[in-house]
Amino acid sequence: MPKVLAIANQKGGVGKTTTAVNLSASLAASGKKVLLIDSDPQANTSSSYGVRGSNEIPTFYDVLLGKVSVKDSAISSPPHGLFLVPSTPDLVAAEVELLKIESRESVLRKILTRDCDSYNYIIIDCPPSLGILTINALTAADTVIIPLQCEYFALEGLSQLLYTIRIIKAKFNPGLLIEGILLTMFDRRNKLSFSVAKDVKKHFAKKVFRTIIPRNVRLSESPSHGKPVLLYDQKCPGALAYLKLAKELIAREEK
Amino acid sequence: MPKVLAIANQKGGVGKTTTAVNLSASLAASGKKVLLIDSDPQANTSSSYGVRGSNEIPTFYDVLLGKVSVKDSAISSPPHGLFLVPSTPDLVAAEVELLKIESRESVLRKILTRDCDSYNYIIIDCPPSLGILTINALTAADTVIIPLQCEYFALEGLSQLLYTIRIIKAKFNPGLLIEGILLTMFDRRNKLSFSVAKDVKKHFAKKVFRTIIPRNVRLSESPSHGKPVLLYDQKCPGALAYLKLAKELIAREEK
Ligand SMILES: Nc1ncnc2c1ncn2[C@@H]1O[C@H](COP(=O)(O)OP(=O)(O)OP(=O)(O)O)[C@@H](O)[C@H]1O
Ligand SMILES: Nc1ncnc2c1ncn2[C@@H]1O[C@H](COP(=O)(O)OP(=O)(O)OP(=O)(O)O)[C@@H](O)[C@H]1O
Ligand SMILES: [Mg+2]
Ligand SMILES: [Mg+2]
Questions:
Q1: Is B192–A220 a contact, with Cβ atoms under 8 angstroms apart?
Q2: Chain A residues with CB inside 8 Å of B190's CB?
Q3: How far is the CA of A137 from the centre of ligand 1 (A)?
Q4: A231: Cβ–Cβ under 8 A, 6 or more apart, which residues?
Q5: Tens digit of pLDDT for each residue in A20-76?
Q6: Using the beta-carbon criterion (under 8 Å), do B220 and A152 form an inter-chain contact?
Q7: Can you tell me the distance from the alpha carbon of B108 to that of B123, in angstroms, rounded to the nearest whole number?
């Protein structure tokens, strides 16, 4: 059985997509078989791999509504071992469709119990909201990675997200755990980064990943080349940080 | 009649709240009377003015559901001339309530036609989604300011937002116009900023504000002091840029 990880935080622009894209690539580069699901109608994860959805290829929208299986929608993409279920902005319509279904929160969870055994990891990129797409990801997930930008508003949103995770755990997914809080866009030149990091470690010590993702322009350049940063500039600080995160994650599994 | 401006972009973390907070303060400092509405359940605009919603004070949720008037919920806050209708995360519940109402898209528009004549400007901060709260803001607005981070994903989301604005204009608000695209977090050290700015100006020349907001750490520090940047560090590049934006906006009205 694969390990299912949701990358979630309703605060916008904190590095959810950047983490989903680059963690999945780093896990694949470490020899794992990874399924990456773009569950955000912005479809930034898809475009980060150079995939622009069109009517010809099946998307996550089709998978959610049972028209296509995961197997038939997953696209293999470099690095070796990485498979992507892409999205387009039409995914917004799935939100409306899902709300009509009886146990709408568990639709994805049921889908991922079928024909996914060959994967080691399934990673789900979420939109910046706590709507039905994020709820489906949290209900399907074993654990949640919470990217947290080292900025003031980030701390404010955290309690809201932790509250939502507790509700999902109580109602739909009793096994749901927090994999960790990932500090992102850490800027050594800026004292705000240090003070937010200190605050987070004070309140959530055990939950914070040892790996910290630095602010690194190569991470924001690589999507325009349709590649994860590992394949764009493998020696840059951003690529090294996400490789380190992958190793930290794998080491936890092997304990 | 006040001019109603929605600050909208479904892409997360692009500077919607920072623009709503600091443009409204700069307009007030330029002698205008401004009503700032926090229409995002993250309530970052409210906390930027040091207002943490509680059960004792009326919020935008109460206004939307007709329990309280704008007049009775607006809190005056420095600088002189600025009034805030605050929010709390409970605003999420208003999304569910609104969906039950007949002409749910125009609820805010109707509310703002009453007892708002004394304001020069009404500014509405939107959440990072194109859901019912953003649709209400776009239906109530005269114009929309689109903050656009100088990053690759920003351009991708723009066509989606422009498409939504066209639909709102056709269905609910024929007078809706784009006030302008505001380039935010522009970093002179980073060539990606220059290439995104060039692209945007190429495609939307007339619509791009002359004022560009630089990346400036003082803008992300001021919310933790509960003040707009103008009252935190009035000589910093961020404060000067938002003052310039206010002047650019006022000059357009006076033409
Ligand atoms: N460590 C980093 N260093 C520099 N830029 C970064 C870093 N991480 C992300 N970015 C850039 O910051 C912006 C926001 O990141 P990203 O889009 O991954 O966040 P998100 O949480 O997925 O946003 P949304 O809430 O809209 O889904 C993007 O333009 C991205 O390229
Ligand atoms: N020009 C700037 N320079 C430096 N930091 C900035 C600037 N503008 C915004 N920020 C910071 O970047 C982060 C994102 O900005 P902000 O929260 O205003 O975006 P938003 O679009 O309102 O996000 P959301 O989509 O979550 O509502 C915040 O931490 C903010 O303090
Ligand atoms: Mg994203
Ligand atoms: Mg905001």
A1: yes
A2: 217
A3: 20
A4: A25, A78, A79, A222
A5: 999 999 999 999 999 999 999 999 999 999 998 777 899 999 999 999 999 999 999
A6: yes
A7: 13
